[in-house]
Amino acid sequence: MPDDRQAQVAALVALLRRPGARWTEIAAEVLTEGSALTVLRRQLGAGETLFADDPIQDALDAARNELQAWAVDGIGIHTLLDDTYPARLRDIHQMPPVVFTRGTLAEDRRAVAVVGTRKPTDQGIGIAQTCATALAESGITVVSGLAAGIDTAAHTAALRAGGRTVAVIGTGVNRYYPAGNRSLQNQIVKDGLVLSQFWPEAPPGKHTFPMRNAVMSGYAAATVVVEAAYRSGARMQARLALQHGRPVVLADSLLQHDWAREYAKRPGVYVVSTANELVATVDHIVRQIPDSPQALEGLPRLVDL
């Protein structure tokens, strides 16, 4: 990478590696300054000149060593100062300061998340597969979280249809979780993209999956929820998607839950009763996706399917 970009990326990594670093605050500060180097110099209390024994130089050297190792390992790193950073993520409050990738980057303006429970019914699996297949065949990127159940069905169907799929995961890109999806994850790296906001070796944790759902919602232009209980990441993603101004599509079987009935009353939420209606509704939404992600807010609710 060019020297100036390398210095900025190394500075951001150094900032994020500091003990107790608050990533959201760092992201806001770096964006305000327009320079991670400036923020690093201020935080470490050093001057503008970098000497060999300067703590900033030590931090930058350590970060550069990490960057080199990631590059050798085939890992992409994209910071909020880079043109390669996913544009739609800049529109959300939970914007991560950096994302790591394996696979092929693309604009993915027409991307839809398909999410649901890890323990789906056969009907739920069928709906997820039908939706993902139709999306893929229409040239729409299928986004999901690589979890067992609905996520796995959506990724697999998109790949089988020859389409693009993006896995937004709750671990580092060097981890496989669940272990049973190792081959699927490798296939997505080959034919699509695996993206994470966590350090490459980061293990799964209780806090990582809610954070993953926020980024997945932000990356996609809309979210389809196939099956989800009250305490589930899929329900959380529906809430986050609405906060992000993204349309949400709910299968009507979800109306057995209080949360789904409450969400169904909100603008931008679509309820469908069959797989065909789901596909038609998603098609309706995708046709309205503008060039600017901010313009997604306030999309009209579909009344007649």
Structural account:
The protein is α/β, with parallel strands linked by helices. The protein has 2 domains: 3-78, no CATH class; 111-296, 3-Layer(aba) Sandwich (Rossmann fold), CATH 3.40.50. Helices cover 43% and strands 13% of the residues. The protein has 11 helices and 9 strands. The chain has a 9-stranded mixed β-sheet, sandwiched between helices. Helix 10 links the parallel strand 8 and strand 9 (269-272). The radius of gyration is 20 Å and the shape is elongated. The N and C termini lie far apart (49 Å). Mean pLDDT is 89; it is low at 47-52 and 292-305.
Task: Quickly list its features.
305 residues, alpha/beta, Rossmann fold, 2 domains, 11 helices, elongated
- As a percent range, the share of strand residues is 5-15%
> Gyration radius, to the nearest Å?
20 Å
Please tell me what the overall shape is.
elongated
Structural class: alpha/beta
What CATH first level of the largest domain would be assigned? Alpha Beta
Walk me through the topology.
Blueprint lengths: L2 H15 L5 H11 L2 H9 L10 H18 L3 E4 L18 E6 L7 E5 L6 H16 L3 E4 L5 H11 L4 E4 L13 H10 L1 E4 L11 H12 L2 E4 L7 H11 L4 E4 L6 H6 L5 E4 L2 H13 L18
Parallel strand pairs: 3-4, 3-7, 4-5, 5-6, 7-8, 8-9
Antiparallel strand pairs: 1-2, 2-6
Helix pairs in contact: 1-3, 1-4, 5-6, 5-11, 6-7, 8-9
Brief overview, please?
With 305 residues, the chain is an alpha/beta fold.
